[in-house]
Amino acid sequence: MKKSELPDPFSDARKTKGCGQMHDQGDDVTMVLGLKDVRKCAHNWKTFQSGAKPGRIVVPNEEYIRETRQIPFEVDPPAHGDYRALVEPWFKRPLEVAYQEKLQQLVGQSIDEALSAGELEVVSDFALKLQSRALTVLLNIPLEESETWIKWGTHVFRSEDSPVDGDKAKILYDYIDAQIDQALASPGEDLYSVLLSSEVNGQKLTREEVKGVMILTFAGGRDTVINAVTNTIAYFAEHPQSLDRLRQEPELITRSVEELIRYFSPLTHMGRVVTEDTQVCEHAQKVDSRISLVWASANRDERIFEKPNEVVLDRKVNPHVAFGFSHHNCLGATHARTLLKILIKTLSERIGKMEITDHQDNIEEWGEFKRKVGFDSLKVKFEETKG
Amino acid sequence: MAKITFITQTGTQITAEASSGNIMELAKENNVEGIDGDCGGVCSCATCHVHVAPEHFDKVGKASEIEEDMLELDDNANEYSRLGCQIEISEDLNGIVLQVAN
């Protein structure tokens, strides 16, 4: 098996039952596995809500370590739509040329570092740095701030021995509180300041609401982007002919990003809380129980995708749900897509060869399922394009 | 060349011409409000949803099963709904009118 391969552990359960089961801190979670079922449940916010107690829709459950509601993520329509409309223009800035030029510079810097090191550990020394630096562009703050986030390491929330670590989460929450204080004292053109001066339905956003948007922005875009960047490097290290093809046919890069994101599915699943007795995959589902929408399984659904376990770089019809689906689709998707496009284009132009010299898989355990989502560490040798 | 007319939710009418590519790409090139094309045209995001004028629907044709599954869960879908990224532009589409759904 290739090191960059990410097997689909959900295949049998998806075909035979349509659902899986897992236990999360004393609470059963029904894992919805098929693409059509996942989409239907994601769309049906009245029965499968996001606006439950803050933290409860996340798997593993964060309700015991977080009180702040993440916005718009943990709000349902119609209020969700008002918040989403407020933040959407900011999160679409990656479509602007000036934004892309900044990301291009940061990607260039990361590639320079990889080439001058010759060999480096990609998770900590490439992906974490690039993710952190790119986040300064999304927040519109000075690049130096990324040094603080890089020091936090790869998992703000997760420790080695516990799925959710309150002490580590507190580092992020205290940091955001301090940044909000600073923005209140001297407002600028950063996301904190913009949110603090924004209104929804004629009401100024409260400090708690601003904090909710910022926690979402930090938490939602950290492990996911780090995994996507690391897996991209691993994939092209083992498929140099694919990188050659994109060098010759750069117009395929947009499709290749969607396909890699489908294949990687950097966020395995996301939960919902059931608001009424209902049925999921033909099984009874009780009020106040939890389900999870398993994006990673839906994205390998053989009823929809031909060759689901292969990366088909020019896949033309690709109805994946790697960025979620319906109202709560990923707010940071435009940033993530833009960053990956620039990364792949730059790799294709500047990298002659990448070789994986050592690796440690990052394997998640969800009840009966073990899923490789990426790497805990990935050592790669980088060589420049010749001539 | 095919002349395609878009009517946005705010009532703005934009007519654009192309001989290749798809409807989503044409709308984006012409800054048609309400057509985002977030996924770049692979039928994953449904941000290029249009209602084809009923009298032109035969020219455009029906959605594929995968596209229909996407439209089924779109609150603004009707019997004339299509995703722009799944409509290839050809001479046959000359003169059609598309109402932007969002």
Write up what this structure looks like.
- Chain B: InterPro entries: 2Fe-2S_ferredoxin-like_sf (IPR036010), 2Fe-2S_ferredoxin-type (IPR001041), Adrenodoxin-like (IPR001055), Beta-grasp_dom_sf (IPR012675).
- Chain B: Pfam families: Fer2.
- Chain B: Its cofactor is [2Fe-2S] cluster.
- The complex is a heterodimer of chains A (387) and B (102).
- Chain A has 387 residues and is of the alpha+beta class.
- Chain A has one domain (11-384): Cytochrome P450 (Cytochrome p450, Orthogonal Bundle).
- Chain A is 45% helix and 18% strand.
- Chain A has 14 helices and 12 strands.
- In chain A, the strands form 4 sheets. A 5-stranded mixed beta sheet of chain A has the order 1-2-10-7-3. A 3-stranded antiparallel beta sheet of chain A has the order 4-12-11.
- In chain A, helix 7 (166-185) packs across helix 9 (207-220) and helix 12 (253-264) crosses helix 14.
- The mean pLDDT of chain A is 95.
- The radius of gyration of chain B is 12 Å and the shape is globular.
- The longest helix of chain B has 8 residues, at 65-72.
- Chain B has a 5-stranded mixed beta sheet with strand order 2-1-5-3-4.
- Chain B is built from 3 helices and 5 strands, in the order ββαβααββ.
- Chain B has helices at 23-29, 57-60, 65-72; strands spanning 2-7, 13-18, 49-52, 81-83, 97-100.
- Chain B has a single domain (2-100), classed as Roll (Ubiquitin-like (UB roll)), CATH 3.10.20.30.
- In chain B, strand 1 (2-7) and strand 2 form a beta hairpin.
- With 102 residues, chain B is an alpha+beta fold.
- Chain B starts with a strand and ends with a strand.
- Chain A binds chain B through residues 36, 39-40, 43, 254-255, 257-258, 304, 315-321, 323, 325-326, 329, 333-334, 337, and chain B through 38-45, 64, 66, 69-70, 73, 86.
Q: Average pLDDT across residues of chain B?
A: 96
Query: What share of residues are in beta strands of chain B?
Result: 15-25%
Apparent shape of chain B: globular
Q: Briefly note the CATH topology name of chain B.
A: Ubiquitin-like (UB roll)
Radius of gyration of chain B: 12 Å
Give the count of structural domains of chain B.
1
Query: Helical percent range of chain B?
Result: 10-25%
CATH architecture of chain B: Roll
Mean pLDDT of chain A: 95
Structural class of chain B: alpha+beta
CATH architecture of chain A: Orthogonal Bundle
The description of the largest β-sheet of chain A is: 5 strands, mixed
The protein's oligomeric status is heterodimer
- Written as H for each helix and E for each strand, in order along the chain, the element string of chain A is HEEHEHHEHHHHEEHHHHEEEEHHEE
Adjacency order of strands in the biggest sheet of chain A: 1-2-10-7-3
How much helix, percentage-wise, in residues of chain A?
40-55%
Distance separating the two termini of chain B: 27 Å
Helix segment tally of chain B:
3
GO molecular function, one term (chain B): electron transfer activity
Organism (chain B): Marinoscillum furvescens DSM 4134
Cofactor (chain B): [2Fe-2S] cluster
InterPro entries (chain B): 2Fe-2S_ferredoxin-like_sf, 2Fe-2S_ferredoxin-type, Adrenodoxin-like, Beta-grasp_dom_sf
